[in-house]
# Entry
Amino acid sequence: MSTSPDHLTRARAADSDRRRNRVLKALDQLTAAGEEISVSSVARAAGVHRSLIHRHGDLHTAVIARAAQPPPDTTAGTEVSRKSLLADVANLTALNGRLSAHITRLERRLSEALGQTAWEASGLGAPADIETLTRRTTELEQQILDLRAELVERGEDLSAARAANRELMAQINSRPTRESGITQS
# Structure
């Protein structure tokens, strides 16, 4: 057996061509079948390692370009594309997040409402009509102030009346008695 460098080079080139052809054939078959096209799926279908596709720029470009193309319309609109499925997943994930946040807000509101109800039912909470009670308290405080002012005024009147009474009594007591038969002792 001769193992000349020229013979080995030709054998390697032939093997490389066979693997490249298998990759291109697998790419065509996956496209025709409408299956997912990625570097891994093409390498698996061709029976080669992914690194072969990555090392050969033309193969890698062909796989990426074919993956970006919409699948052929073999069933007149009943087949779903990978991009539409990814868009659906993204939309459903966003919807799930919004619904989860909404549920959290509703749970918080329910918890607050139940807590308030329990607080009021226990008798520890403030009465329900706080505004009316506040208004009534203000009215009563004003009435107290008015009554205190009236009390001070009447106290001043009483003091003035007592002073006048004392003055009159002092005048009566200081007058000489008339000769009416009453003698002072």
In short: The mean pLDDT is 86. Residues 150 and 156 are 10 Å apart (CA to CA). The two ends are 172 Å apart (CA to CA). The helical segments are 5-33, 39-46, 50-55, 57-68, 82-121, 130-174.
